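ok trying this again, last paste got cut off
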Amino acid sequence: MIMVARGFILFRNCMKKLLNLFFATHFLTGCLTLYAADLLGIYQEAKMQDALFASAKAQFIAAQEILPQSKAVLQPEAEFQADSTWNRIDFEAKTGNSFVQDFGDHQAGLTVTQPIYRPQLSIGVEQARIQLMIAESKLEVASQDLLLRVAQLYFRVLQKNANLAAVEAEKIAVSEQLEQAKRNFLVGTATVTDQREAQARYDLVLAQELGAENELAVANSQLEVLLGRQVDDDLEKVTLPIDLPGPYPVTMAAWVKKSHETNLNVLIAQRELALAQYEVQKQTSEYKPTVDAVGSHTFSDQGFSSFGKYSAQSTVFGIRFKLPLYKGGAINSRIKEAVAKQESVRQQLEAERRRSAQRTTESFLGVTSGLAQVKALEQAVASTQLQLESTKLGQEVGVRTAVDVLNAEQQLSKARRDLYNAVYSTILAQLGLKAAVGQLSETDIGSVNKLLE
């Protein structure tokens, strides 16, 4: 009995440990899921999991090596070279004299070259600096693109959820109408046409429900691709009523002007133009002379020569001057090519300015019109809520039916759906406006995240 009791106690203790471990694991999993269920949590996870952003970071790391490489060619270059050969001479003259000679030749030398004047190399360093700045801007573009993609995919899921909720509310109302039409047909107060109309409407709502469910599944899958994992359905949504801030500055012209100054793609195009201008200078400098300081020290062990066997060392130091005279027209051709590319980049800069202005204008109008639409739909929701309450009161006194109440609930659900969609679209337009002027940051995502339940 004692052994059984001890065994039972041991079993109980083991079960307690297993249960504690189980609940602790599920608690941590729940915390992680809760952390990633809001917009900021999804963004923090996407920043670590998104393949496109990871690729952009790797490209930036690679671009950081361009500047050291360009500076390296301005530093002294040292080269060591050694040769060792074995020779055999089998000599036979017509006079009858002959001999066989085996010998080895050994040479080693160290050569040091220090560029003194090479304008092409100095221009290359400036180009490398610009390329590094372009890489930094491209990384920032990738960062802001990730912010926008996360917000778009997140709110797309919420929009599809709102659409599905409205369709489900309509399905409840239509199904009740169908059941009432069937009952009225049985008692003779409705025709078969009324029943068929109700059935057709119900079938249409079923098709809409299937479409809404499919759209929600697609939106979830797009978010899952971004995160690399399955997404829960309990994403936090905005709290209504909501007070969305208006754009500041308040004029569209001020935002467009700012986009010309701080839009990241415009900045990249400006730097690419500077890069092209340096390329023209670089190709033009091919006509200029170059000056290098050259020094060498060589050792030679000669096994056979007219002097016999000998060893020698030599040290040389001097200045090497080179002036290009003619290269078959290649320099002129490269200069023309660089000038044409410079003009191409200049036109790309102008096109980028126009695109940034258009994007800024569209986002600004999306914000202003969205804010007005949100206010109008808030009033519509309030009016529809009052209508529902009046319909319920009418049902209690016998002047309204249950179908009337369901229709009122359906209208309220649609009004709320439209309000949610307007809010989500306005928030995305606000984020897009910040991105259009190159000022979208994680702080903006945090501000939006505060609007979520």
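PB: full thing came through this time. Residues 1-35 form one domain.
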